[in-house]
Amino acid sequence: MRDVLVIAAIAGTIYAGYAMRTVTVPLLVALALAYLFEPMVSRMSRWRRMNRPLAVSLILGVLGLGLAATAGVLVPIAIGQTLSFGENLRVGRYDAAIARALESVPDQFRGDVREWTERIVHPLAEPATRVSDGTASAAPIPAAAAVTAQPTNAAAAANVFTIDGPLTALLGAGSQRVYSVALAALQLGLLAFLIPFYFYYFSVHWPSIVDFFAMFVPDGRRDGIFEIVREMDRAVAGFVRGRIVICVIMGVMFAVGWQLCGVPYGLALGLLTGAFSIVPYLGGIGLPFALGLLVADQFGLEESARMSIWSMILWPSAVFLVVQSIEGYLLTPIIAGKATNLDPVTIVVAILAGGSVAGIYGMLLAIPIAACGKIAAKRMLLPRITDWARGRASDPLPLDQR
């Protein structure tokens, strides 16, 4: 009964944390950052005239300046390329290439695929102006004209962008957009304040936090449990810290390589692909987008100015293969090593399982959890099962033993 109550208490705590995720997510992110930066803070605090608060303050300052400088340089370029891509879609630059691609779709699926593509490319245009079977028709109706072309009766207006309350009635239907943007900005600003604040507190008091949890470890099992925890720490910390550095390097290489190959918006796409690469094998989703953007851009040019079809496919693929080879044979062995000690099949299965349970968050946590589970099974469960199989124990799971 005691064990059941303990399990129920743990499950209830997890559920309460999920229900209050607006509060708990910044706490967990800050705790994870404090864990990742602990070796640096510990090493800096051993310098002369350097204590933990000063070391954490210096790290926060350097991180803030680095993020501000990176955002000031890269974010405007990435946003500009993204807006340019959206504008090119709106004016129909890629309609001819999309129409040619639709011709290769089987007849039984072509109608559905065309309708889905039209909704994405020209969501506000009239059906007559959208991409047709082989030709790009007149330019789509601009957003303002499309909005004014909608029915203006009271029933239709009531179904568009409504918020209950007298404030909405006073400000009009557009107030929902302003409210949503303001709420998103407020949440982002709150996260930008809370995460560094919690990070400072956790990093300064990290030894006290570790000592607090160490109090609950039984004295008779202290050495064995601490040894297992240290092994898990090496696996998780090595993987996470190494993956962050690796994905940054890969993002820069993807961005530079695809930009040199002529891939439209290669900088933004390369950095995004590098960010996805924090989960092993997930960065592969960037290659189809690079190929599709380059093909669509080239088919929008005159035939004499186009690259050959083999060049469109070869060069972005070569960049992807070179970066993946550098990551697999150079970056991972040097930076991360065999931190998790997991084979590729286990990593793929863990990623798929984590994604099916908790989406992108599950994919991020799947490999560290799998590594810790492997260590726990190897050090705690398998020896007991082996003793039971050899006849040296009557119960493979002696949960009631002290």
Total of helices? 15
The SS-based structural class is mainly alpha
State the low-pLDDT regions, or none. 128-165
**Main pleated sheet:** none
- Given the C-alpha coordinates, what overall shape results? globular
User: How much helix is in the residues?
Assistant: over 70%
Rg calculated over all Cα atoms: 27 Å
Task: Write the element-wise H/E pattern from the N-terminal end onward.
Answer: HHHHHHHHHHHHHHH
**Overall mean confidence score, pLDDT:** 75
Q: Give the N-terminus to C-terminus distance in angstroms.
A: 16 Å
Counted beta strands: 0
Describe this structure in words.
There is one protein chain. By secondary structure, the protein is mainly alpha-helical. It has a domain of 45 residues. 75% of the residues lie in helices and 0% in strands. The chain is built from 15 helices and no strands. Helix 2 crosses helix 3 and helix 11 runs antiparallel to helix 14.
